[in-house]
Specification:
Length: 659
């Protein structure tokens, strides 16, 4: 006879330090009820608590902490290093008053019911090479639970799903994966994906991107299927057995014979373009509704980057309208508060954009009609409240102050000026745009007779941050940046997706235009400055270099050794050496800019964010003498003669290029 059980896992949109809201969402999930900071012998542990009918059954501390990438668990917790060891934990008085217990088991233990055995993993333990589920499964644990805080990265979902499947493929069992969802007040977006698996198959799947604050995923499964699977695949366990905490309770009952069991499903993965459309949009919505502001303001240049940010805001409005249609009362309440209208019900994403999204094209004498028209057309199609202004009068006023003090008036290189003058004239335009963006963000609502202020959105991509190809404190300086962790290559694909998904035909001309800052004089009315010529390499090359620097931990020499093979069909070793040296020169000169970069949505595993993900020096020896000499020696040994002339774009030697 089968032993069928009904299991549930969940994804909750929790917010750091929002104790009332977090409790309310926990109660809505009907899975948990209490939480408190656990210290054992004056040491703080990250723990999972198992309880039943107001009684705590056991406390299981985390044994393998995450201390890489965005994870810094050792700041707050210590790992439990006593394998298979259990101690007595004295409960705080406030908990004693609730449960009526004085002490409970604390340590590496599992729960033994009348009909099965339940074990727990915590978050990153699933990713570890010594995952506890392996030994627990060999010792007879049939159900594994995992309460996780796994954040979104592009193309990461399949890795997470495969880990859950593999956890029960080799030795059978049921795996219940719960995950945080939403923006918890930082650069990360936790993307749900609660799931249930049995014997290597996914049988229940939660959503990856959603505005629902609470999502519960259930599955009815037969424990006998686990036992049959293990009867064929498992061998006797020889290690020290798990400590079992017995409980007088059954998950199954005798009436389960007529209960249908969930069957395997095929996981539906999003494409990277869909992930960019959905993840940052959900993150922006959480940030907006929790910030107390009335909307967003975006300097819209008509280029790929700012257009991508605009499309993400539009996607957010699409999600909000869909959630309201689906009856999400929390989203409706939030949007009414954002627009300061309790009678408002959003129906059309374009109309909602007009209420919460302001775009601004800031022209100068170096701007082309093409970018102005592209910005105007896209704004009209997404429905933003759009304005166009000219910054020349402010630029001239700023330069006039400088000239009055020094008696000199700087000139662009095209007009006979020096490299230093050329750069200064570009930077003053960029920084004035930042000042104007914040001025309009603070006062535009006031000028319209509406309450609240606007959040300024940035639009520098991950590759530009990596090389420092932006002006410090320009209009890339914003409150938040939804594309700061996304590569230019992915953004172009994303815009192609948006053009088709949202029928935004204005994006076609934007994608066809060469990326340009438009900070230098036009040549016969046409753009003479392009990003890739300024940087000395293509965006696709930067993506490769970025992954080698961060993920593969390559310095100049090891990167050169890899790229002479990777790029051998397109570039000679001489050309590879030139690009590697040029990149590290740019990177080291401009690394200091990462200390003030706008908080950005984390989406890429090679992001250069200095705040928590990519902790590196910001003062480098920019000559890289030993490393570059090693490259030269390798080239000489191959019979090449190295005489390099590096292009030195003005922005590379900027006034702010020195810490």
């Amino acid at each position: 006879m089968g032993r069928k059980v009904i299991l549930a896992t969940c994804s909750l949109n929790q917010w750091a330090l929002d104790f009332d809201g977090n409790l309310e969402r926990i109660l809505r999930s009907k899975l948990l009820k209490n939480c408190w900071p656990i210290m054992h012998h004056n040491v703080r542990y990250n723990c999972r608590v198992m309880f039943l009918n107001r009684k705590i059954l056991l406390i299981r501390p985390k044994m393998l902490l995450a201390n890489y990438g965005n994870n810094r668990e050792f700041r707050w917790f210590s790992p439990w290093n006593k394998l298979r060891h259990v101690e007595e934990y004295f409960l705080p008085r406030m908990i004693q008053d609730v449960t009526g217990e004085d002490t409970v088991p604390f340590g590496d233990c599992v729960l033994s019911t009348k009909d099965t055995c339940i074990g727990s993993e915590i978050c990153a333990e699933l990713w570890n090479s010594r995952s506890p589920h392996v030994d627990m499964g060999l010792d007879g644990v049939e159900i594994f639970t995992n309460s996780s805080a796994s954040y979104h990265e592009l193309r990461k979902a399949d890795h997470r799903v495969n880990l859950v499947k593999s956890a029960t493929t080799k030795s059978g069992g049921i795996y219940m994966f719960a995950n945080q969802k939403g923006c918890d007040g930082d650069r990360l977006y936790y993307d749900g994906c609660a799931m249930v698996a049995i014997n290597g198959d996914i049988v229940a799947q939660g959503t990856q991107f959603s505005l629902d604050e609470v999502e519960v995923v259930t599955a009815s499964l037969d424990l006998e299927d686990v036992r049959s699977y293990r009867g064929e695949h498992c061998h006797p366990h020889v290690h020290k057995p798990c400590h079992r905490v017995k409980v007088d309770f059954s998950l199954s009952d005798c009436n389960g014979v007529y209960l249908p069991t969930h069957q395997p499903i095929e996981w539906q993965f999003h494409t990277p373009e869909e992930e960019i459309s959905l993840g940052p949009a959900c993150w922006l919505w959480d940030y907006l509704r929790r910030s107390g502001q009335a909307g967003f303001l975006l300097p819209l240049s008509g280029g790929v980057d700012s257009s991508s940010t605009a499309c993400i805001v539009y996607s957010m409005c699409v999600l909000v309208c869909q959630a309201v249609r689906d009856g999400n009362s929390q989203v409706l309440e939030d949007v009414q508060r954002v627009v300061s209208d309790v009678s408002y019900t959003p129906v059309d994403p374009r109309e909602l954009c007009g209420r919460v999204f302001t775009t601004c094209y800031m022209a100068s004498e170096n701007s082309s009609e093409g970018t102005r028209n592209r910005a105007r057309d896209l704004a009209a199609q997404v429905g933003s409240s759009h304005m166009s202004l000219n910054i020349d009068i402010a630029v001239k006023a700023m330069l006039g102050i400088f000239s009055m003090v020094t008696g000199k008036w700087p000139q662009f290189s095209a007009n006979g000026g020096s490299t230093r003058e050329n750069l200064a004239l570009q930077n003053v335009q960029a920084r004035i745009r930042m000042i104007l963006a914040y001025l309009f963000a603070q006062l535009n609502q006031w000028a319209l007779g509406k309450p609240g202020g606007l959040l300024v959105l940035g639009s520098a991509n991950v590759d530009e941050s990596l090389t420092g190809y932006f002006t410090k404190y320009d209009c890339s300086s914003a409150d938040i940046n939804p594309i700061g962790g996304i590569s230019k290559t992915d953004l172009k694909s994303f815009l192609q997706y948006c053009a088709e998904q949202f029928q935004l035909t204005a994006l076609k001309s934007i994608m066809a235009a060469p990326p340009t800052a438009e900070l230098e004089p036009l040549a016969d009315g046409q753009v003479s400055q392009t990003d890739e010529s300024d940087m000395g390499m293509t965006y696709s090359e930067l993506s490769v270099i970025g992954r080698l620097r961060k993920i593969s931990k390559c310095g100049p020499y090891s990167m050169f050794c890899k790229l002479i093979h990777t790029w051998r069909e397109a570039l000679s070793p001489l050309q590879v050496a030139a690009k590697v040296k040029h990149f590290f020169k740019m990177y080291s000169v401009n690394r200091h800019k990462m200390t003030t970069v706008t908080p950005s949505y984390h989406a890429e595993s090679y992001g250069p964010d200095d705040n928590r993900f990519d902790l590196r020096p910001f003062l480098y020896n920019t000559r890289w003498s030993w490393q570059f000499r090693a490259i030269d020696d390798q080239m000489y040994s191959r019979g090449h003669i190295l005489i390099f002339h590096f292009p030195q774009p003005a922005w590379e030697f900027s006034d702010e290029a020195r810490p």
